[in-house]
Amino acid sequence: MDIIALLLDGFIIAFQPLNLLVIIVGVIVGLFIGAMPGLGSVNGVAILLPMTFLVPPASAIIFLAALYYGAMYGGAISSIMLGIPGASTAVATTFDGRPLALKGKADKALITAAMASFIGGTISILLFTGFAPMLANIALDFGDQEIFALMLLAFATFVGLSGDDIPKTIFSICIGLVFSAVGLDIMSGEPRLVFFDIIGFMHGINFLVLAIGIYGIGEMMWTIESNREDSAMYKAVISMRGIMDSIRDMGRTWFSWTIGSLLGFFVGILPAAGATPGSLMAYGVAKMTSKDPDNFGKGEVAGVVAPESANNAASTGSLLPMLTLGIPGSPTTAILLGGMVIWGLTPGPLLFVEEKEFVWGLIGSLYVANFFAVLINLAFIPVFLWVLKMPFTILAPIIFVLCLVGGYSPTQDMHDVWLMLIFGVGAYLLRKLDYPLAPAVLAIVLGPIAEPALRQSLLISDGDFSVFFTRPISGPITIIAIILLILPAVKPLKRRFFPGTNGETS
Predict the structure, then answer these.
(1) Residues with Cβ within 8 Å of residue 280, at least 6 apart in sequence
(2) Which of 75, 228, 267, 306 is 20 to 30 A from 100 via CA?
(3) What is the Cα–Cα distance from 504 to 506, expressed in whole angstroms?
C-alpha cells in the first residue's frame, strides 16, 4: 500500500503544469529526433542536456526521460517508412516493418508499432514500480558468465531458426563478428583487423553506420531494382477500420508483445546491454515461437510488435540500475546519470530514501509520458503516411541525403560515410545472393558485449569452460543455447535416415 501512496504522490508531481508541459514537449521532440537517422535518444539527450538548466532539476530529468521515451517511439517511423533505422534500437523493426510498408500496409505497421511500444512501456513501468529493489539485486548477480550465456542464446535463436540456410546464417554471423572486432583490442589496446592500416578503422566500426548502410542504402538500391514502390506509395491511408484491424492484430500477437516486454525489460536492466540487444533478441524469440516463422522478414506483424515492445521496455529497464545502483543500463541513461550528478542528485540505494519526491515524481512521469507518446504518435501517422505518397524519384534522393547525414553525424568523419556506402552495396549483393542480413546485424551489436564477457570469464577460470555450466543462472541458459544450436542438425539427419517421416512420397 505504501507503493500505491508513493505512486499517487508521483502522479501529483507529474501533473504539475511545468512538469506536464516538459513531458509533452519532450515526447514531441523525442519523436522527431528518434525518426531522424543518425540521431536517436543518445544524441537527443546529449544535445538538449544544456537546455534543461532553465528548469528545476526534477523537471529537467522528467523532460529528458520523456524525450528518451519519445525517441523510442520515433525510431520505428523511419524504419517502416524509409527502411532506415532511426536509431540502433529500431533495426529489428525494419525487418518486417519495411516489407509491410512496401505492401501498402504502412498504416498497420505504424499503428501496431505505436501500440506495442505503449504496451511494452506500460508493462515495464509496472514492473519497475513493483519490483525495483528486487530486480536490481538480480541484475547484480549477473556476472560475465551470465552475460556471455545470454549473448550465446541470442545467436543460437538465429541459427536454430535458419531452416535449410544454416551455412549462410553462420557465415552472416561470422561476418558481423569480424566487423565487431575491428579497432583496438579490449584487453591489450593493440590495433586489430585495421584493414589496409586505414586510421579510420582504429575507432572500430560504428554500428549505426553499418545499420544505415545496410537498411538505408542497401534497401534503396533493392527498391530501385525491383520497382516495388508502386505497390506502397499510394495505398496507405489512416482509417478507423485500420485502427480496429491493428487492435485485432495486437490480440493475435499477444505472446510476441508479452515476451518482448518482459525480455526487453530484463535485458535493459543489465549494465551495458541496452535496448538494441533486447529488441533483436525479442525478434528472434518471436520468430522461434511462431507457427509460421517463414513469414518473418516478409511483412509479419509479430515481427514489428516484438522488437517495438522490447525496446520501449528496455528503455524503462535501463533506468532501474541507474537509479538504484548508480550504474547506467544504456548509453542514454549514462548521460542522464551525468545530468543527475550535475544537479546534485546522487543515484544509488539511498536515492529512494533521501529523494523520494524526485524518484516517484519521475516514475509517475513515465506513465504520463508513455500515454502522451502513443497519442501523439497516432496523431502524426497521417503526416508520416504522406511521405509514402511522394514519387520514389523524389523520395530516393531524400533517403540518400538522410543516410549521408546519419552516417556522418555520429563521429563527424568522412571515413564512416564511405564505409556506409560500401556496406550498402555489400548488403545489396548479399541480398541478391539470398544471404540473411539480420544475423550479421545481431553479431555486430552483441559482439562487443559477448567478447569481453567471454575473455574475462576464461581469465578468471584459467581457461576452464565449465564455468559457464556450473553457475546457477548461466548454466541453464548455456544448455538451452547449445540445444538450439544442435536442433538444426537433427532435421537433415532425420530426413536422411527416416525419409518417410516428412511425408515425402517416392
Answers:
(1) 91, 92, 154, 307, 438, 441, 442, 445, 446
(2) 267
(3) 7
> Cα separation of 438 and 444, whole Å?
10
**422 and 213 in contact (C-beta within 8 Å)?**
yes
- Domain borders along the chain are 2-492
The predicted model scores a pTM of: 0.70
Per-residue model confidence (pLDDT) at position 413: 82
pLDDT category of residue 216 using cuts at 50, 70 and 90: confident
Grid cell, residue 438, equals 539480420
| Closest residue by Cα to residue 246 from 121, 422, 153, 112 | 112
Q: Which amino acid is at 340?
A: M
Contacts of 308 (CB under 8 A, 6+ apart): 76, 93, 112, 113, 116, 117, 120, 260, 279
- For the beta carbon of residue 131, count every other beta carbon within 10 angstroms: 14
| Cα distances (Å, whole numbers) of residue 382 to 72, 236, 387, 496 | 19, 9, 9, 54
> pLDDT tens digits for 364-382?
888 999 899 888 888 887 7
DSSP output for 458-505:
HHHTTT-TTHHHHSTTHHHHHHHHHHHHHHHHHHHHHHHH-GGGGT--
Cα 193 to Cα 199: distance, rounded to the nearest angstrom: 11
Ramachandran angles phi, psi of 194, nearest 5°: -85, 90
